[in-house]
């Protein structure tokens, strides 16, 4: 029977940041359909569609926080954020078990758009052009597309690797490598996996790692040195180091951010690294041993060294790491070998991908935050994206405050509100604490 039919319809708080939204919930049947509608609207990608996409997502998010499976339309009575279009979809699924509109949306065009936009560096505009050319497979794009964007070159070449989800063991393995190197450079560093893994997901498309140091200013210069060390170990395939563009005025205005689709102004590195195939099968494996397995391909001349000309376009910040004479433990011999091999054995990303290899390419984001912004950065980089949208809207509309990954600014009192923990971020916004795994909106 229907346990809820006799009860009053549920009342949920309006904003997702006021309620728990977990990965497991009772209404996947409906949320999957709504998220296909959302995805389709996003891929069509014009102004009207993007607000429709958000409406589908908001509705889906409400259904995810329902503490029971939806069995009748009357249960939606007091719920906000579910518009007429969404109601039609839900009703059809309740009656027929599926929704015709959603089924019809998943046509050839949609499938191709999903495949193409899953390539690192490819957005819906390029994907549309490829479809107009008559392309429908990754292979056609790999053979026919010449890009000046390093992300696209590597994204196309390593599409199979990067489209294989990163699992939790691999994420922890990557965190371990980064932590060991970062701690050597900067003892006392704080390092945290954020993104989907922090929200309890078991798989993801990348590994997001946020770093800081409790002594203000100590974190400056860390990232370049860390990358140099990872590069010396032969595990970096490509990437781009972005300098921090933060200034205090950004606490109050962040129109520039949203215009560029940027998330924040932190110093960060977005790139691709290689990890041994075996690390997810055997998480207990000593990674210093496996590093010699993967870096041995440098010595075999597979050209996995980071190279400015193959990894970055002129318009992007080149991989211009500081020379590491500060670093006593720098392995000069391997550096010399690599420099030699770099010129003699340069091969393209595509050739590199086709080699018989014992490693897999993985997308990694490394972000560095000053300590006084860290807990806001942690909330922002934990996400998810929809949770961020919602908590920022809540701050603006309900409190007259500006929330970003850099901080919280009270626009009425004209002051910033510091936070020394994630709980304080929520307290500052008069919100009950929502655990990371409850932010899966
Ligand atoms: N983020 C955001 N807005 C963006 C990009 C990112 O708010 N445009 C935040 C929220 C995300 C977090 O950063 O949760 C990490 O970004 P990812 O794209 O890696 O997203 P996830 O880690 O959530 O997903 P996945 O598991 O696919 O990596
Ligand atoms: Mg992620």
From TrEMBL:
Mg(2+) binds at residues 206, 208, 365. It comes from the Eukaryota. One of its GO terms (cellular component) is nucleus. Its cofactor is Mg(2+). Keywords: Magnesium, Metal-binding, Nucleotidyltransferase, Nucleus, Transferase. Coiled coil: none annotated. GO terms for biological process: double-strand break repair via nonhomologous end joining. Its main location: nucleus. The keyword Metal-binding applies. GO terms for molecular function: DNA binding; DNA-directed DNA polymerase activity; metal ion binding. It is found in: Nucleus. Transmembrane segments: none annotated. Belongs to the DNA polymerase type-X family. This is BRCT domain-containing protein.
